[in-house]
Amino acid sequence: MEVGVQTNGVKKSMRKLSLMLLMTLACVAVLASPAMAGVVGERTINTSTVNPGETFEVTVSLTATGTSMRTAGILEDLPDHWILTTIDNDGLSHVIEDGNHTWVDESGSTLDPAVPVTIVYDVTVPENATAGTYSITGLVKAMEDVGGSFDMCSNTTEGDNSVTIAAASVVHINEGDDYKTKIENAADGATIYWHEGTYSGSSSISVPNNVHIIGDGKDVVDVQSYLVSGENLEVESISITIIGYYNNYITNATINDCEFRGILSQGNLVVENCTSSDMLTIQSNGLNYGNVVLSNNSFIGTADGNYRITIVLTGYDNIEVNDNVFYDALYPSASTLISIDGNECVVEKNTIANYSGKYAPLSIGEGHFVISENNFESISSKYDSLSPIRVDDNSNVELFQNNFYDDSSSYVAGSATINWQSPEAIDYTYQGNSYSSILGNYYDTYTGSDADGDGIGDSSYSPGASGTDEYPLMAAFTDGEIESELFNELYSGNVTVMETDIDFTASDSGDTYPVSQRTCLGALLESGVEYYINDDSYADYGSFYLESIGGIEAQSWPGASWGIYVNGEATDYGLGLNSVSDGDVVSFYYAPWDTETFAQDLDKVFYSVSITVNDETPIDAQRTIKYQTFNVDSDQYNSTLVTVTITANEYLEALYLIETVPSDWVLTSADEDGALFRESDDPDTYEWMWAGSMNAGDSKTIKYVIQYPAGESLDDYEFDGVVSAYVNNVDVDDINVLGDSSIELTEDWNPWDDIGSEEDEVVTGSELQEAIKCWINKIDIPQTGAEMTSDRMQEVIHLWLIQ
Fold it and tell me: 194 CB contacts (<8 Å, ≥6 apart)?
């Protein structure tokens, strides 16, 4: 097989071929033949249509029409830059000169009319070949022996003489390809697969109509070019600089799961699941008929204010902007963030936060607008102050279930009439109960009360623009729920109960009953919390019903009401019949009930009361562990201070403390407060003994430093302690040390409270901002590479607030 040769433009050269044939005959002994003859050529191409980059096969046959013909020759003319590879030359020599392909019988053999000379070759079309019909032409020749002299006979090769290059319907683009030419030569309706790589060098690419571009992923396909012109474009899973540019609009575009910096389009537009950082511009005109959807996108600017986010949607019939995040749009000279003008427009479930510009971030023109369930936070502008929304005077606006977090005197700029509540009742939940009502908006400046506990304020609110919100919300609205703080702990503390009966007076009847103090009811009474307890069921069951604690009243079943638990387990009996003992934790949970299991839904506990029961003892002992959580392998310290304070409730002697710490942890005494101190023979156990007496109210406080060993596993590690003393000549033993009892070792996911961070273990405001960006953008935490979960985001906020 002959190596493929790329032609550089065939120059027909009959003269050269004739000379070659004559030179061949001069070297061959011949006999004169009087017969008149000629040659006929026939070309067959195995296809009529090929795609750029494909190969097809050509067969050319030369047939003598008489017996006096010798020295066959074939000349073929191909389009420029097409690559020819000989498959079968049938004994002829393939000569290439000045880009011409010639096959010659150098032996000067006489041709047999019954046996054609046949050559076969392949042709490869360049990948960048443009669509169209291309010619393949040529000649066949031979020398005729006429009475001892030689005449040249030639003829045009007949048969197939053209190939059509089709525009590609499926195009694969890889790094290094001339991707601009490939796309611009693709057929209308083509599917273009853009594979992993970085693509640059072509500023703008004219896109055929109805093209679908699919990338290997926006994180791995980086196209530093503009897609311009074209209609009905679909693009997904690539990073592209701009779609549409200057006056080269894309008409009707669907963009999904892409990263981009700009879109210039007209007609219908759908942008979903996309991201953009730094600069972003979307400008689209619906031509008075189109529809636009912006959904589930994350558009993040920069905190330094060097880049802007600008979205302008005008001339549309329908506009939907939902479930998007717009954050850090801080370009001071930007007119607005989103400008919308359409007949029917819905703006819902978006977050617009950390914005500054000339005017309010959401600017709406004429038309009917429904603006609901959006979050507006940290908004400021030069001319609209803290208002997050600017409306045209002719706008028709329904604005409800939004959360306004800024202390604004006017939440909407403009004088259009606004309906500040939902047009009809909406089902929602609040504190575990289900409701249906017309709903307004949440304003962090609203200070009204909610006497009936339905999450809607009792008094109306004037948001500062035209109209009044008659149904202001008591808390932010999210996913069908007016938020309420889970486990809002009304009380948490210790009580001492004795083996005695006390008199209890029912709240409703005023009747008095003897009750053991060592019951759940006795513990509740000792806590001092406000309650309302009725005795309706006492005659039948000997127990009472808890209607409210702290003014939080029970709802009708299966709504939220108060359940009773001891050590995390639901009690078997009603209030007043469940005994408790030293160390028990009595809990009262306010939560709804499951209609199938008849158990409380403890995932929806809205209020709680937690009471730790102590028997009457001569000694109280309390342990405090300064740091109860350590991030292993972090730059934090690996030790902490533990303090145990022991208080005498009456005269006692020979006070004795035993502390058992986790296995192989190192305890170093820091302050013995006059005690004798030693390490016990029992492993990981330490003892303090005071050679003296204590009066009621006296205290002893010991301190030690505990250090966990290197390589310790991630887990919770428990501390145990007991005290004893002689009281009234009796050795009173095994009084538990209460308070902090464990240290948790966790993975080092948090770099912001490490030593060496901005302010060591203090979480700063800038570190909080960095954490927020990780959570919003769903990216891993820097330095540690850990996932930023919602629980971890809450913890960072907590650490920032307490410091």
Answer: 173, 179, 213, 214, 215, 216, 221, 223, 238
